[in-house]
Amino acid sequence: MKRILIVKVTSLGDIVETLPVVADLRRAFPSATIDWAADAAFADIIRWNPGVDRVLSAPLRKFKKARNWNDLKEIGASIGELRAEKYDVILDIHGVYKSAIIAFIARGRRRYGYQNKDLGELGAAFAYNARFGPRPLTDAWRGMRVSVSDALGYRLEDTPDFNIRLPAPTRELNIPRDARIAMLFHATSADVKKWPKDHWGEVGRWLAARGYSIALPWGTEREQGEAQAIAGLVPGALVLPKLSVVECAHWIQASELVVGTDTGLVHLAHALQRRTVMLFAATSREHFGVNDPGRSVSIGDEGAPPDVPQVLAAIESVTIPQSTESGATIR
Fold this sequence. Notes:
Elements: E1 3-7, H1 12-28, E2 33-39, H2 43-47, E3 54-58, H3 60-66, H4 69-82, E4 86-92, H5 97-105, E5 107-113, E6 130-131, H6 140-152, E7 180-185, H7 197-208, E8 212-216, H8 221-231, E9 238-239, H9 245-254, E10 257-261, H10 264-271, E11 275-280, H11 285-288, E12 296-300, H12 308-319, E13 322-323, E14 329-330
Parallel strand pairs: 1-2, 1-4, 2-3, 4-5, 5-6, 7-8, 7-10, 8-9, 10-11, 11-12
Antiparallel strand pairs: 13-14
Helix pairs in contact: 1-6, 1-10, 7-8
């Protein structure tokens, strides 16, 4: 196996959770060239992984919103770049129409995709001349890894390796180095995923009473207003300035704890090995959650958001040392 193309186009959380596939492929095929095709909005995150040789990106999401001629020209140029190499195997682990088009355009001997019942969009099926096996009975993230390992015939390591190397920030972030930072990711891409402001306030006060410095990130003006409202309920809480994704990643890396809704940046916290509590209200915890006993936990579920006591218990489960039967402690 000399050259491999991964196709995973969006979005932030999915991109982050796909990174362990790169380490899996590197262990199995150490001399292979591994490229990745994605939306330009998420290309930098893939570049944080030194196991990826080349990131092929196009402003697909941006063009869909603005229909800008320059974006269309960039998409055209990216097609030429995509076809510049011939791949031994193309792995579409996204399974929707746009990822299938990329897989079909790329030059490759074998183009793998999911079986029809496992595709996000059935129309994607046209692109493949090989299929992954039936979707395994596990979460989406491990399922991707299992699908690829089974298809290419290598043994899967149990522990996912995200292999993230953050670039240095381009400005001073003024992160307090002597504080126990707890970041509360209250903002979401959809209102149905939100958790009530008063709940965030109660959790923030509980954490502050235990010595944490509360940091509230945001991305839009509306989210800034929500962060300010929560800060009004938590004396001493800091509403952060607007941050780029890499700047937010540095804040996450400096934090002792991250609590947040089912969003990409909370997945990033899990990947950066922070103590993480992920809250679910509108999507499947079993399918999309994070879980690393003693460090990361997901609570709530689709149509059943957690209450405050459940969140506090989850925080304690990832922050308080747990005793073993022999009397030793594990964290």
